[in-house]
Structure to design on (375 residues):
């Protein structure tokens, strides 16, 4: 398993964290993660990864309900898929970062779009991190722990 | 630079000699082939960008012109009062006629230069069209691969992730289940490797396409510039 994990690390996802230093120390009491992905199985998987670490988790499949979920749940960090119907993750991220009430919440894009231009574009939308699919549990945790 | 090729078709050796000498005095001379109407074989015309038809034996001219491709670039250099000329002009409207006057050689070189430039421009345009068609096929394949990559990566995330979650608590699994999950995990890893290769291939294709476009742009467009 160790060798395979190493192989996963070599081949699979890479993690980019652009602005963790902007958020300072996060209280352990605030560890709530909002997962936005149109695929229920992806939401369930991420929940499976994070619930072992004691995070409180909220998952939604409809990107048009992101603001409502934020207002209700006040998450510490948002894990946001990019390729979604009706409203893509880049668009959601840009709008959150332009919103005075929500722009302080770190957004990590979690996506299968893995080219350099995709990552650059994600950063331009104000994303604080970028995790490409397929990712390992360790990679996802590394990204989330920087912010929550 | 791609060297242009010109066929001089005449039964008058002095015509061929003078024209060849004038051309060779130019800065960039094309490859020149001289043939008489007796030796003329219509299959040879396709190998030349330009055919210059000079004075030929009585009655041979219509046969020579008939045997040339309608799209071939042809310059006819015969006396202006040639009996056949009026008929030929009506039959071959694209025929360029240069009268055999005092300055015929200089006029012919000017017209030939323009004709060769046009032939080269057409060649490059056809080449670009072929490349565009080929690139379109590659683009279709590339778009398909990109679409597929997204779906496969999502599926792989679930396969690898759920296998990893199960392997986090191996105590709850029988040794057989554990081995099966490890197999699923390692097979998913192989698919991931294949997808990585597809991504590399897509990048290589993109680079090849860019190189191909750069090559088309860099090619000279004036091989017939003889002045």
């Amino acid at each position: 398993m160790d060798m395979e994990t190493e192989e996963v690390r070599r081949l699979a996802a890479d993690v980019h964290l652009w602005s963790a230093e902007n958020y300072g120390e996060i209280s352990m009491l605030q560890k709530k993660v909002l997962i936005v992905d149109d695929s229920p199985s992806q939401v369930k998987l991420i929940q499976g990864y994070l619930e072992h670490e004691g995070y409180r988790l909220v998952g939604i499949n409809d990107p048009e309900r992101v603001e409502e979920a934020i207002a209700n749940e006040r998450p510490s960090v948002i894990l946001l898929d990019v390729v979604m119907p009706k409203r893509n993750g880049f668009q959601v991220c840009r709008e959150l970062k332009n919103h005075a009430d929500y722009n302080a919440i770190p957004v990590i894009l979690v996506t299968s779009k893995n080219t350099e231009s995709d990552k650059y574009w994600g950063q331009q939308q104000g994303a604080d991190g970028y995790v490409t699919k397929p990712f390992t549990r360790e990679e996802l945790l590394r990204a989330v722990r920087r912010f929550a | 630079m791609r060297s242009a090729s010109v066929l001089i078709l005449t039964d008058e050796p002095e015509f061929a000699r003078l024209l060849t000498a004038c051309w060779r005095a130019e800065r960039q001379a094309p490859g020149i082939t001289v043939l008489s109407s007796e030796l003329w074989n219509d299959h040879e015309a396709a190998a030349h960008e330009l055919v210059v038809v000079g004075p030929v034996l009585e009655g041979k001219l219509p046969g020579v012109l008939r045997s040339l491709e309608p799209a071939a670039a042809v310059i006819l250099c015969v006396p202006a009062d040639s009996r056949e000329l009026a008929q030929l002009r009506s039959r071959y409207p694209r025929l360029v006629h240069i009268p055999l006057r005092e300055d015929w050689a200089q006029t012919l070189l000017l017209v030939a230069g323009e004709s060769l430039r046009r032939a080269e421009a057409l060649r490059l345009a056809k080449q670009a069209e072929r490349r565009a068609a080929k690139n379109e096929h590659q683009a279709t394949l590339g778009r398909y691969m990109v679409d597929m990559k997204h779906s496969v990566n999502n599926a792989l995330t679930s396969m690898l992730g759920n296998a990893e979650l199960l392997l986090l608590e191996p105590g709850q699994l029988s040794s057989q289940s554990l081995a099966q999950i490890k197999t699923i995990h390692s097979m998913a890893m192989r698919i991931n490797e294949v997808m990585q290769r597809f991504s590399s291939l897509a990048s290589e294709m993109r680079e090849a396409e860019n190189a191909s476009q750069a090559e088309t742009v860099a090619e000279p467009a004036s091989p017939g510039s003889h002045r």
Remarks:
- Chain B touches chain A through 23 residues (CB under 8 Å).
- Chain B has a mean pLDDT of 83.
- The radius of gyration of chain B is 32 Å.
- Strands of chain B lie at 5-9, 31-35, 50-53, 73-76, 96-97.
